[in-house]
Amino acid sequence: MNRPTRLTSEVRENLVAYLDGELEEESAQDVDSLLTHNETARHEVEVLARTWELLDLLPATKASSDFTEKTITNIRIDAQPKFTPWLTLAQQKLRQAVPWVASGILVIAAAVVGFLATHEWVPDPSRKMLSELPLIEDYDQYVEVESIQFLKELRASGLFDVGPNGGPAPGANALPAGNSGDRRAN
Within a domain: residue 2? Predict the structure, then answer.
């Protein structure tokens, strides 16, 4: 059994034009040739012919006198360019931009909170070392001091106090009492 072939939309349009008598001579001959060889095309022409006959049986209605005028008026109205006031356009753009701006603000706020959380609230071991940097820089000198008592005497003597002009403070002793120049003499 031969499988029926499908008709393309172009062939269907040609069949409708053939029934209406709108085809040129050459195209009409092509459709005649198609109808003699293709059963699907013949069936389609029969269906279209019956449809036209049924349409002819329907009662014809007459359009009202103002139908044409209304139709043309509607076409003119639709064809006119529609201008939207600039304020409405600005409101539309603002409505479109608000979600983007809000999400941008949320991202920035999250970044700031994240930075502060890691920078301020999480302890950084290097901060303690930075606060004790002067002590660390002079560590070699402090290691050589064998007794805390000697350091206390140096402080009490005022030997390292600074005066108003950057020199030693007035009344500062050269060495703590009871010590000669060598601190290891003890």
Answer: no
93 in any annotated domain: yes
Do 135 and 179 sit in the same domain of this protein? yes
4 occurs within a structural domain: no
144 close to 150: Cβ distance less than 8 angstroms: no
Is 159 within 8 Å of 175 (Cβ atoms)?
yes
- Residue 68: inside a domain: no
Give me 185's structure tokens.
């003499």
At 144, list the tokens: 């050589």
**H helices of the chain, where?**
9-20, 25-37, 39-57, 67-79, 86-116, 125-131, 133-137, 139-144, 148-157
What's the predicted TM-score (pTM) here? Answer: 0.34
How many separate domains does the chain show?
Answer: 3
159 neighbors 176 (Cβ within 8 angstroms): yes
Greatest alpha-carbon pair distance for the chain in Å reads: 139
Q: How far apart are CA 40 and CA 34, in angstroms?
A: 10
| Residue bearing tokens 């062939």 | 11
Domain with 36 in it: 9-57
What is the spatial distance between Cα 178 and Cα 147, in angstroms, rounded to a whole number?
A: 15
Write out pLDDT tens, residues 94-149. Answer: 889 999 999 999 999 999 999 888 877 777 778 788 888 888 888 888 777 778 88
